[in-house]
Amino acid sequence: MVTVGIPRALFYYYYFPLWRDFFRQLGAEVVLSAPTNKKIVNQGVALAVDEACLPVKLFYGHVVDLIGKVDMIFLPRLVSTARKEYICPKLMGLPDMIKASGIALPKLIEVNIDMSKSDRALKQAALALGRYFTNNELRILRAWNLAKFSQQQFEYLQADSGQLALEALELWNGESDYPRLQRQEERPRIGLLGHGYNIYDRYISMDLIQKLQKLGAQVVTAENIPADIIEEEAARLPKRMFWTLGKRQIGAAFHFLKRPDIIGVIHVASFGCGPDSLVGELIERHMRRAKTMPFLFLTIDEHTGEAGVVTRLEAFWDMISWRDAQCR
Ligand code: SF4
Does the beta carbon of 162 sit less than 6 angstroms from any atom of ligand 1? Predict the structure, then answer.
């Protein structure tokens, strides 16, 4: 059986159920790179260009981790996942950067995903991907429809059942079982903003979600908010945000500001991220203007020390818990 490697980085945190089930339906065995660890970070940092943000550097490390373990590595070029919107330029150029890095790569599964002009581009991309395994279009489309169903379930678990992507993914990749996926009991809620590949990666986020949960918080992320609410909230910006991931953060931030059950908001941004510098500024400005929501901004890169993050987190938690108690 042919083995397909999927790096546990970047869009793994958004689309793993789709890709996993698609490749499986086409007869492949899917292998994930190991959870991020020091070796993967060091390999990524050593290979990537200095200007790359931490998530992109990490992606290199995850690709290297798969070498020798799989026949092919999935390396899509994500240009756009929605009409008139774009993913960040670094992700568009990622396959070129990986191929130019000098790494001895196995066969790559490459595809261009650009839905900026039409949703039909996704079906074309699925057909192109499927042809790596079979020329039977019916079989490819059947596999695609089943995979889309898995993706819908994954998104439903987050947006409608309040499940965090991290735990839902552990279920999908077999590292957890269903009982762990029960809803958290009612606790003070913190809105956590940030790209999925930062906040759900336990190593680079320094277990931020687990730390908040240990302090007694229930964490709510942008992925826990239905897409129509994100759209509606982001549309309040005077100018349309055409960066998909940025729009998601802005929409979630505006939504958190309206929710009386959210007692504080934390925004995690990547050092060296162009879109984050704009989006972070916008979010901070709106939070400060509203004057009602305690707000903490954290920037992470490969040098960020855990002790500093813990200190700031605990101080923030003490402050908002005290404030919440005063307001009751
Ligand atoms: S959006 Fe920012 S963090 Fe994400 S890949 Fe692009 S530059 Fe990096």
Answer: no
CATH at 288:
3.40.50.11900
In a domain, 253, yes or no: yes
φ, ψ of residue 14 to 5 degrees: the values are -110, -35
Shared domain for 120 and 231, answered yes or no, is: no
Nearest to 265 by CA among 252, 282, 279: 252
pTM of the predicted model, to two decimals? 0.91
Do 145 and 10 belong to one domain? yes
> E strands along 180-322, which residues?
189-193, 218-221, 262-270, 295-300
**Ligand 1 close to Cβ of residue 262 (< 6 A):** no
Residue of minimum CA distance from atom 2 in ligand 1: 273
Q: Is 320 in the pocket of ligand 1 (CB under 6 A)?
A: no
Q: Are residues 118 and 215 in the same domain?
A: no
Please indicate whether residue 155, judged by its CB atom, sits closer than 6 Å to ligand 1: no
Distance in angstroms (rounded) separating the CA atoms of residues 18 and 66: 20
Mean pLDDT calculated for residue range 101-115: 93
Could you list the residue range(s) of the whole structural domain that residue 13 is in?
3-159
The reply to whether ligand 1 has any atom less than 6 angstroms from the CB of 88 is yes
Q: Chain-wide mean pLDDT for the chain?
A: 90
**Do residues 192 and 93 both lie within one domain?**
no
**Which tens digit of pLDDT belongs to each residue from 137-189?**
999 999 999 999 999 999 998 888 788 888 888 877 776 655 454 455 578 89
Biggest distance spanned by C-alpha atoms of the chain: 65
Tell whether ligand 1 has an atom less than 6 A from the beta carbon of residue 56.
yes
Residue at 212 is within a domain: yes
For residue 220, the cross-strand partners are 191
What separation in Å is there between the alpha carbon of 183 and the centre of ligand 1? Answer: 30
pLDDT in tens, 207-240: 999 999 999 899 999 999 999 999 999 999 888 8
Judge whether 169 lies within some domain. Answer: no
Q: In the chain, how many domains are there?
A: 2
